[in-house]
Amino acid sequence: MKKIGILYGQENTFPPALVERINSMNIDGVTAEAVQLGAVRQSTPSGYAVIIDRISHEIPFYRAYLKTAALYGTYVINNPFWWSADDKFFNNCLAEKVGVAVPRTVLLPSKAHPPRTSDQSMRNLEFPLKWDEIFGHIGFPAFLKPYDGGGWRDVSKVHSAEDFFRQYDSTGTLVMMLQENIDFTEYYRCYGIGRREVKLMRYDPGAPFHERYVKGNPEPSSPELAERLRGDVLKLCNVLGYDLNTVEFAVRDGIPYAIDFMNPAPDCDHFSIGQENFDWVLDAVARFAIEKAQSHQRPVYPTPFESYLHPYGSVGAAASAAVDSVVDAAKKVRAGAKGKGVTGAADAMADAVQPMFDAVSDAVSDVVDDVVAEVKKRRAPVRKPKGA
Fold first, then answer.
1. 0.85 surpassed by pTM
2. In this predicted structure, what is the pLDDT of residue 380?
3. Which secondary-structure segment (H or E) carries 186?
4. From CA 162, how far away is CA 249, in angstroms rounded?
């Protein structure tokens, strides 16, 4: 029997309804239940094929348990390793890399020294910061918000330098961001499930909490905008590796700006999102969890954005690895291999060269020249051994 576990806290509608929905589907060999935990023994599998995590961002004990569960084969929604390291500022930078519009944002050091540090610990930090440059870049009004966290906690809208410093002085040891205000004509909160399904929901962030999801859920103002919203949700969820997320967009001049997209335990409460949205997310999460429970593959938690850390992007990373293989094979030839050794080394070089050419052929035109230059720079001269 494949078990799906739901790990949750104060939620009263979504988790029980999800357990009921999965069990009511009568999938042979699959059942769902609320996770029950005591002390966790080392090197002990969890017993769950899938765990849907709704609370470990608040409970470190649960996060440690989930990482261990994943180690022994449980598929955890969402990836507990990445969620432990995620932050909004990195996500903004990554969003720009994948072509999603985001507001101008500046990362700021904490106002107060972190625990067990002093002014000597901050000697690499310039003081004072160039506030005029920062304010000129971002403009007013602006939003001051923590670089991680969620639920609109510790977020404030500031209208002047004086207003900013008044709010900033109260943030203590929180690391903050100052972010451009987007005067929007439309605003959306969008579910992304399984990195393939998207639900667009019209949202009013200025309304009372229980009225923020607009009744009737009006369609986006144009088919082009709807298509871009869906595409941007998928881009962000795929590059961040989130199977369950919400992405918020403020639309200005027809361009959707991603405002908030680090919500791996997003609001799924019936009373806030409404019946239609509630039914949709129940069905989508249930189907995805069952699919993962039935899979015979062990969970793999790659770093989806790893290729963007290479100076030439994913193409450059592949080509660079291929070049390394070519150089290694060339060194074998230069070392004096004879007879079959030379043939083997030549075959190795050919095998190594092929993926490089495949990578280059898939590259966009503005990257090709850089990749070719890198190949030429690093290619080692090959000399035939005497007598070969």
1. no
2. 47
3. strand 186-193
4. 28
